[in-house]
Specification:
The chain is mainly α. It has a domain of 121 residues: Tetratricopeptide repeat domain (Serine Threonine Protein Phosphatase 5, Tetratricopeptide repeat, Alpha Horseshoe), CATH 1.25.40. The protein is built from 27 helices and no strands.
Length: 470
Amino acid sequence: MKSNNLKPLPESLINTLLSEAFLDNMARAKEMIKLNPKSAEAYLIIGYAHNEMSNFDAAISAYTKGIGIDPELMEMYFYRGNSKFNAEDFRGAEFDYTLYLNKNPDFPDARVSRAEAKSVIDKHLSARDDYSYLIQMFPENDTYYTMRGYEKSLARLIHDANEDLTKAIRLNPLNEFAFYVRGSTHFQDNDAAMADYSEAIRLDPTYADAYVERAYFHAVKGDTRAALADYTKAIEHDPENCCALQDRGAMRSRLGDFKGALEDFGQALKIYPEFWEAYYSQGLAHMRNDEFQKALNDYDNCIRLSPLTAEPYVNRGFCKSSLNDSKGAFADFHKALIIDPHNLNGYYFRGKEYSKMKHFKCALADFNKLIEKDPRYLNAYFSRGYVKLYMGDLTGALADLRRAQPIRTTTSQLDQVKSTEHLYSKERTASRAETLKLLKDAPDWLRKEIMKTIAKIGNIDTDFFETKLN
């Protein structure tokens, strides 16, 4: 809660405000108003007391009355700005802080408060400018460099942010927040990021957010158990950290601890029922456990809370397909691609549904589009190869099958790792079943050609097909 010291007011008034006897102060202020209805300072006392007791609307009303009496009492704007900030009216807070700073531009608390209000409403470059003003006034203040670096990082000025944060650390090597924020500026240098988060944790072993960020990089490196340990530490120090609970659940799911994963997701949703990401991860856990109806229910909730996010539609479509609702699956994949025309999984699974419906030209178009967007999406070559075989393009089919290799998940995006590795293992099984069906239906000459090609491709089990065909 914002509650900064007054600057130029009389000492007796300041002492009254800071006495913390808020009810007594309000009673005295009301007596002052009875004696002098034009006492702006009385309304200032009332507003301050209401603010400290979290009655923000009443505080704003009192300050506004005081401003109506004496619009030149500038502290009234500053304190009304604080109450608006506490009431989450950040644009109103910025407006009031600006009115105050127009008269008193060098008051640090008002400038910091305005920068914080701007940051909440994503005016990061403007917030940066407020910290730049303060740095000119106090060039050795590490906090102002830290906060300017933080705003720059949010504005994606990563190099400039890193410079400010490094400067802050030189001024104060014990500034754990500077290490924490600088960790986010080390794009493509995971080791440097982890070193900064580790230093932040060394300086403050209770720093829950630093554990969460370091855990992410452990997960990216494939060290799921180290990530799990860091998420657990974060939860120890911040038991209501929904993100830590959700991410720990994801790690438990990857390790096969579905019960523990579902407990974490459930706890996250108990704390924050609108947390759609937790429904998403819970759905993945159910999918990994082949509980597609439960997963479908999770994605229904996910889509209800975040209807313009594409990936939940893709996963719900996969669930519907697994439950033999091909029409519903197709509709979900199509919706995902309307929301995000670059969603690779959407093209892949819609192409699969087209294949099931024997719409091979449409399937081929989806797989072509997918491979054009990401030539490393190797499952697409398998599926496109099967489509080409059905369409009679043996040469093209064999080329695609040769191109496909065993799937290895190498993405650095944790959410993609979670969402695809199980699905792909199932798709590989389904692909083998499709190949067997194709071989059984094919004429002898085509079956021989395909089996020759399969024998040359090291990632297909020829013994399996020979056993099933004989």
